Amino acid sequence: MNIYPAANLPKSIIVEFFKLHWGSTEMVISSGIYDCSALDGFAVVDVDDKIIGLITYLIKDNECEIISLDSMEESKGIGTTLVQEVENLAKKKNCRIVKLITTNDNLLALKFYQKRGFILSQIILNAVEEARKVKTEIPLIGNDGIPIRDEMVLIKVLN
């Protein structure tokens, strides 16, 4: 598994990746509006130099926030490896916690992160309704037919 800092890849590949998987490079969540193609991150690329995993993050003060995580091949350790890479960097930067925000319909993410030591910290009711005012293409219905309404904040305290 080849892991690279996202900054080492051509920006056009990162932009195309986000457009394909998220509709745009813009991420609108309660913590802010982000251009994911401009954030720090790590990518896993396959033998054909195609991105098969990508994580972006932001470090502010002593907190690291994961903004996006995508793995194109499930159950191969790609997501876990990328999260560990960010956690290791956060420790080096003296961060106390790693946090992330996901939506109420993203049951796979809730399961994934809790298995890796993250805990549910906060529920922000109707946060996605606010996000839709900025990014209108956010769908009303998400995974498994669940209406997308709320954001869930998960945190992991670093040792």
Short description:
This protein has 159 residues and is an alpha+beta fold. The protein contains 4 helices and 9 strands; from the N terminus they run βαβββββαβαβαβ.
Q: What fold name stands as the CATH topology?
A: Aminopeptidase
Order of helices and strands: EHEEEEEHEHEHE
Q: What is the C-level CATH assignment?
A: Alpha Beta
Distance between the termini: 26 Å
Side-by-side strand order of the widest sheet: 1-4-5-6-7-9-8
| Tally of structural domains | 1
Largest sheet: 7 strands, mixed
**What is the global morphology?**
globular
* Total helical segments: 4
CATH superfamily: Gcn5-related N-acetyltransferase (GNAT)
Rg, rounded, reads 15 Å
CATH architecture: 3-Layer(aba) Sandwich
The count of β-strands is 9
Helix content: 25-40%
Key words describing this protein structure:
4 helices; 159 residues; two-stranded antiparallel ribbon; alpha+beta; single chain; globular
Plain-language structure description:
Helices cover 26% and strands 36% of the residues. It has helices at 11-22, 78-92, 107-115, 127-132; strands at residues 2-5, 26-29, 32-35, 40-45, 51-60, 63-71, 97-103, 119-124, 151-157. By secondary structure, the protein is of the alpha+beta class. The protein has one domain: Gcn5-related N-acetyltransferase (GNAT) (Aminopeptidase), CATH 3.40.630.30. The longest helix has 15 residues, at 78-92. The model has no long low-confidence stretch (mean pLDDT 94). It has four helices and nine strands; from the N terminus they run βαβββββαβαβαβ.
